[in-house]
Write a structure and sequence with these properties.
The chain is mainly alpha-helical. It is built from three helices and two strands.
Length: 141
């Protein structure tokens, strides 16, 4: 059995992928802090409810469910929640049209990093529980 078959690990993997992608988008914002006319981007918030629906096989409203291998997919497939870059509200815009605020980007980066570390910690704890459950009884640690 693959760990991706376990819904908890699948959701954690998706969460870490989302946070990794968010860090990339934020780092692009920081890299373009001096680019004239650049507007910062961010990802849609990660939806735990969408992940639960995906893990349980229940399609969200408005999305066709593929319940058999012969079913046709909608053009482009179902949208993956939370992975599309979107423009953020700018709090400051410089005279050259750049609206990246480095302090805000650093706060977003710190938040993404803390959430990523928490997800990795939870992933490791869950793996340790699986190892403990599969260990032969009576063997030492």
């Amino acid at each position: 059995m693959d760990l991706a078959d376990i819904p908890l690990f699948s959701m954690l993997k998706n969460r870490m992928g989302y946070l990794s992608e968010r860090q990339k988008v934020i780092s692009e914002n920081v890299a373009n802090a001096d680019t004239p006319g650049y507007a910062p981007h961010d990802l849609k918030p990660f939806s735990f409810q969408a992940e639960v629906q995906k893990a349980s096989g229940v399609a969200p409203a408005g999305v066709m469910a593929v319940t058999q291998p012969g079913h046709m997919q909608a053009p482009g497939g179902p949208p993956r929640p939370g992975v599309k870059a979107m423009k953020t509200k700018d709090s400051e815009t410089t005279l050259d049209g750049n609206s990246v605020v480095l302090e805000e980007e650093m706060m977003k980066m710190t938040d993404a990093r803390m959430n990523y570390d928490a997800a990795v910690g939870f992933y490791q704890k869950s793996l340790n529980m699986l190892r403990l459950a599969t260990r032969t009884p009576g063997r030492g640690a």
